[in-house]
């Protein structure tokens, strides 16, 4: 007898299977069948709804602002959005996760606070060099994050090319990927000074200081360091079609390169949206003109994008509403809407929903070496999934689980996340998170103790 059998339109990384059955026992997937698999302690009839593998959000900043969000609130919003695993960035306010002690401390916080599962990025402090990389790998990080651009010498430092080369070389034997923020520091700083000297403060100021040139230049550098060292090189938030072209060129040469696009680059554009949203839409790299959004969609439909993520950060509104665009913090909250937004946009553009399962579940799980535990509705995998009603309803911040009092997506009509399950247990019932803090936990790459 199964613990749970769910019937619905099952979305896998290869196909959408209408009216199929998902069977679950002891928190794991037993299989997918066209015929009723038999008796179960609980049955869910989700006909007319989609059953998606639990999303793995590859880029989350839950602790960028002290006293604001944190792992408990962030994972509550994740559960409401069909996200069953978050991959936490290492740039916490007051704690750069760049040592084994820091990894263990944050992992313990995840075990105590999280509603869904949490994997961790590590990084390096420039003063430490590469000396603490091996111990972070041993402590269970699922990858490393660096930046070609620095906003703070301690909290978000620039890693110069020679140190990044040495770090990539140290990571390479582990098989983990090195993910990098993709903006050339020198170019941005020069253009930023030019923008300030010109007195520009409106919505165009950010894009003119953080240019597509700076982004493409950084991406070429990142992939070349990967080619030189043999390390898996990953760009964490590409906003331009040319960046995907660069990644593809290295792939064709046989190098292990990958590219991630954040959900906002697929939804918004500078000319259509940033003009009205102002500082709320300030993000690094910037939201680009609509032609770049369309270029990204062409690449997505062609299968050239590896991951879609949020780059979620729940800044308080006072950090996002300055009329001087340049004075606002970069980024915004989106973990609760990523899955329904991508489903909506793929349906509108005629992109098969199996692409959503690849971009949000299978590919990130593979990238961070969480397969076969996470990312797929296959036999033996943990039963992480969501049930999505394709009929749309208005999503609002006021009725959401996020702690933020603002969102770029406020008022958007979206498919509805009716339920989310982690390891076969319901964590979201369509209205409330139904598990306590600590139900989620720290997950390491597969094969590590």
Explain this structure to me?
With 449 residues, the protein is an alpha/beta fold. It contains 13 helices and 18 strands. The strands form 3 sheets. The chain has a 9-stranded parallel sheet with strand order 14-13-12-11-10-9-6-5-15. A 7-stranded mixed sheet has the order 3-2-1-4-16-17-18. A two-stranded antiparallel sheet has the order 7-8. The protein is globular and about 70 Å long. The two termini are 31 Å apart.
Brief summary of the model shown:
With 449 residues, the chain is of the alpha/beta class.
Write a concise keyword list for the protein shown above.
449 residues; single chain; 18 strands; 32% helix; alpha/beta; 13 helices; globular; 7-stranded mixed beta sheet; 9-stranded parallel beta sheet
Question: Which structural class do you get from the secondary structure elements?
Answer: alpha/beta
**Tally of helical segments:** 13
Distance, first to last CA: 31 Å
Fraction of residues in H or I helices: 25-40%
Return the average pLDDT rounded to an integer. Answer: 96
Total number of beta strands: 18
What would the principal axes of the Cα set say about the shape?
Answer: globular
Sheet of most strands? 9 strands, parallel
Assess the beta-strand content as a share of residues.
15-25%
Task: Outline the low-pLDDT stretches.
Answer: none
Radius of gyration: 21 Å
Query: How are strands sequenced across the largest beta sheet?
Result: 14-13-12-11-10-9-6-5-15
């Amino acid at each position: 007898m199964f613990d749970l059998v769910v019937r619905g339109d099952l979305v896998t990384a290869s196909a959408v299977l209408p009216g199929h059955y998902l069977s679950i026992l002891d928190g794991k997937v037993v299989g997918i069948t066209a015929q009723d698999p038999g008796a179960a302690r609980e049955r869910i009839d989700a006909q007319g709804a989609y059953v998606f593998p639990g999303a793995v959000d590859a880029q989350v900043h839950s602790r960028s602002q002290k006293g604001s969000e944190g792992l408990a609130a962030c994972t509550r919003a994740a559960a409401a959005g069909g996200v069953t695993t978050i991959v936490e960035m290492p740039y916490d306010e007051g704690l750069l996760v760049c040592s084994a002690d820091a990894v263990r401390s944050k992992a313990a916080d995840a075990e105590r606070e999280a509603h869904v599962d949490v994997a961790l990025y590590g990084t390096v402090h420039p003063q430490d060099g590469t000396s603490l990389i091996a111990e972070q790998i041993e402590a269970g990080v699922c990858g490393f994050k660096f930046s070609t651009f620095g906003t703070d010498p301690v909290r978000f430092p620039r890693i110069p090319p020679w140190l990044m080369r040495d770090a990539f070389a140290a990571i390479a034997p582990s098989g983990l990927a090195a993910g990098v923020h993709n903006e050339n520091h020198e170019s941005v700083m020069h253009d930023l000074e030019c923008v300030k000297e010109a007195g520009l403060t409106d919505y165009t100021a950010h894009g003119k200081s953080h240019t597509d040139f700076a982004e493409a230049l950084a991406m070429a550098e990142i992939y070349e360091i990967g080619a030189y060292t043999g390390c898996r090189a990953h760009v964490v938030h590409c906003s331009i079609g040319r960046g995907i072209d660069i990644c593809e060129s290295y792939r064709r040469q046989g190098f292990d390169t990958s590219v991630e696009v954040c959900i906002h680059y697929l939804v918004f554009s500078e000319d259509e949206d940033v003009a009205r949203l102002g500082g709320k839409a300030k993000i690094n790299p910037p939201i680009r003109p609509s032609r770049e959004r369309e270029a990204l969609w062409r690449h997505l439909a062609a299968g050239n994008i590896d991951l879609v993520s949020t780059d979620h950060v729940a800044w308080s509104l006072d950090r996002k509403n300055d009329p001087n665009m340049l004075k606002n913090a970069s980024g915004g909250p989106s973990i609760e809407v990523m899955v329904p937004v991508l489903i909506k946009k793929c349906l509108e553009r005629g992109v098969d929903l199996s692409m959503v399962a690849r971009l949000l579940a299978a590919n990130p799980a593979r990238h961070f070496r969480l397969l076969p535990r996470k990312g797929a509705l296959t036999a033996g995998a943990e039963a992480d999934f969501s049930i999505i009603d394709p009929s749309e309803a208005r999503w609002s911040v006021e009725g959401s689980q996020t702690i933020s009092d603002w969102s770029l997506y406020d008022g958007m009509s979206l498919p509805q996340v009716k339920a989310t399950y982690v390891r076969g247990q319901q964590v979201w019932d369509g209205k409330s998170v139904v598990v306590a803090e600590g139900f989620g936990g720290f997950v390491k790459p597969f094969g590590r103790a």
